[in-house]
Design brief:
Layout: E1 2-3, E2 21-23, E3 25-26, E4 34-35, E5 40-45, E6 52-57, E7 63-68, E8 73-77, E9 80-83, E10 100-104, E11 107-111, E12 119-122, E13 130-131, E14 138-145, E15 149-157, E16 161-169, H1 184-189, E17 192-195, E18 202-209, E19 212-218, E20 221-229, E21 233-241, E22 252-254, E23 257-261, E24 266-269, E25 274-276, H2 283-289, E26 299-303, E27 308-313, E28 325-330, E29 335-339, E30 343-350, E31 382-388, E32 392-395, E33 403-406, E34 410-411, E35 419-428, E36 435-442, E37 451-453, E38 457-458, E39 465-471, E40 473-480, E41 489-498
Antiparallel strand pairs: 1-41, 2-33, 3-4, 5-32, 6-7, 7-8, 8-9, 10-11, 11-12, 12-13, 14-15, 15-16, 16-17, 18-19, 19-20, 20-21, 22-23, 23-24, 24-25, 26-27, 27-28, 28-29, 30-31, 31-32, 33-40, 34-40, 35-39, 35-41, 36-37, 36-38, 36-40
């Protein structure tokens, strides 16, 4: 068997040690790829483009999913989005800003960019969001940093205006207390702010990473945050210079690590430094097709169950900056894939839990957006979600997408002799009726000869797709049709004999 190998589009075609194509599939194991399900809508549509979403649990374990657009905030109620802004059309979030959410106890805090005050909603108490109390600054980015501070980054206040490199934190253990900086009250409550000298604008702030209370991504630097107590409260230590992120929403914090898109490619940050994860693999390919004017439309999310990170980005052929591609990375086996999925944004949601009677709101048994045994119906389970191109909440629970996998290109016989390819057998548990194979080959006698791709041939009863092709260098392209039921695809076997006529 010739394995598909890891997806390595940045490598040369000839003797690429991995797959030349791995599209609409997941890097399932170190030796195989699996299917990627399509999006299936589970809610009504929003009117405007969603600019942020997140799910939280309250003290009783119930799940609450929030989202925001440029002018309003919403909460999911079954399949409907209830508008719960402080007043209808209350906000003016910039089109390049995200609406960010974080949880402080029972309180959900929303960062609305520099044009609106941060908002707060108390789970099981509030009916609507309201301005966050205590005269906080406005901020583009928000998180909670232990031992108990709401932490805002890239701020605006009435005195200094916009300060992109500033971080500012609340009183300890009080999300709604923001005393005057420099006052004895602020000192007693450990509330302060810090302007970071190097790295440009604050792009993302996250808590609990690499054994540290938090980390700050700038445009051109990364800082670690360390709690020191009064009088300094926090120390900020630059651990990366000339490396940050141009894509604020690309940062994904999972366990002890933060994964992100930098200007040079994809990285894993562990609190002390960054390690490239896409170098000589996918970085060049993805960055070449990524819309450079739409870094703010790159969204990351994690699937801790399957140990994968998903990044949605606007690639070639995107519409108005809407992401139309996925890059998927499995950190346990260090493998990548891509997919053609159009979505306004992606995020890690949690299922709210649905009874059998409650299924009626989602359609009939024949039209449900997920099978009855799917974890999306069980409350509190992590669910990979998106807002599709119709601005509906959607889950990756639809039919499997049409998949394409291509082996490395290499000489088929020892000594680079010409071979007559009689057939290709794909090693996959996909039904033969849903599987076809094309042969990508060079008609000339050198790796520099032009490529020709045959038509896609069906699998015969002997398990082979048959050809009568003479070549020295070839790769096999395996296609699995949309909606096919399968679990693994591993590689191919060639039926090739010496071609003595040439």
């Amino acid at each position: 068997m010739i394995p598909f190998g890891p997806y390595l589009p940045d490598q040369a075609d000839y003797q690429n040690p991995g797959a030349k194509q791995a599209n609409n599939v997941l890097p399932r194991t170190a030796d195989s790829y699996g299917p990627l399900s399509s999006l299936s809508a589970v809610s009504d549509a929003l009117t405007n483009r969603p600019q942020g979403a997140e799910a939280f649990r309250d003290s009783d374990g119930d799940v609450h999913t929030f989202c925001g657009d440029a002018s309003d905030l919403f909460k999911l109620n079954g399949t409907a989005w209830d508008e719960i802004s402080k007043s209808t059309g209350a906000y003016t979030v910039n089109s390049e800003d995200a609406v960010e959410f974080t949880q402080f106890g029972q309180h959900i805090i929303a960062a609305m960019g520099l044009t609106d005050q941060p908002q707060v909603y108390t789970l099981d108490v509030s009916s609507n969001f309201a301005d966050l109390g205590g005269t906080p600054p406005r901020f583009r980015h928000v998180t909670v940093i232990e031992p108990g501070f709401v932490f805002g980054g890239n701020t605006w206040d009435a005195t200094d205006g916009a300060v992109p490199n500033r971080v500012w934190w609340s009183a300890i253990d009080n999300h709604a207390d923001w005393p005057t900086i420099g006052s004895s009250d602020a000192a007693a409550k450990q509330s302060d702010r810090q302007d970071l000298p190097i790295g440009g604008a604050v792009q993302h702030v996250t808590g609990a990473i690499g054994g540290l209370p938090g980390a700050i991504w700038m445009e051109k630097a990364i800082y670690r945050i360390q709690y020191q107590g009064p009088p300094t409260v926090f120390g900020f230590y630059e651990v990366e210079r000339d490396r940050g992120t141009p894509a604020p929403n690309s940062v994904v914090n999972i366990g002890p690590a933060g994964f992100y898109l930098g200007e040079e490619g994809f990285y894993r940050f562990d609190g002390s430094g960054s390690v490239p994860i896409g170098d000589q693999k996918v970085d060049k390919t993805i960055l070449n097709e990524l819309s450079q004017d739409n870094y703010h439309r790159v969204y990351g999310m994690s699937d801790p169950i399957n140990k994968m990170i998903f990044w949605a980005y606007p690639g070639t052929g995107h519409s108005g900056g809407r992401p139309n591609k996925l890059a998927v990375y499995n950190w346990s086996v260090d493998r990548w894939t891509t997919a053609d999925v159009e979505a306004e944004l992606i995020f890690r949601d949690m299922s709210a839990g649905v009874t059998l009677d409650g299924l009626d709101a989602y359609g009939t048994l024949d039209t449900l957006p997920a099978s009855l045994d799917s974890r999306v119906w069980t409350g509190g389970r992590i669910v990979l979600s998106a807002f599709d191109s119709d601005k509906k909440l959607a889950r990756f629970t639809g039919d499997n997408l049409a998949a394409t996998l291509e082996t490395k290109e290499d000489a088929l016989l020892d000594g680079n002799a010409r071979a007559l390819v009689n057939g290709v057998m794909p090693f996959t548990d996909a039904p033969a009726a849903d599987t076809t194979v094309s042969l990508s080959y060079r008609e000339g006698n050198s790796p520099g000869s032009s490529l020709t791709v045959t038509s896609a041939n069906a699998i015969d009863v002997d398990g082979f797709a048959h050809f009568t092709t003479s070549t020295r260098f070839a790769s096999a392209v395996v296609n699995i049709g949309a909606g096919a039921s399968w679990s693994h695809a591993q590689g191919v076997n060639y039926d090739a004999t010496p071609d003595g006529s040439q």
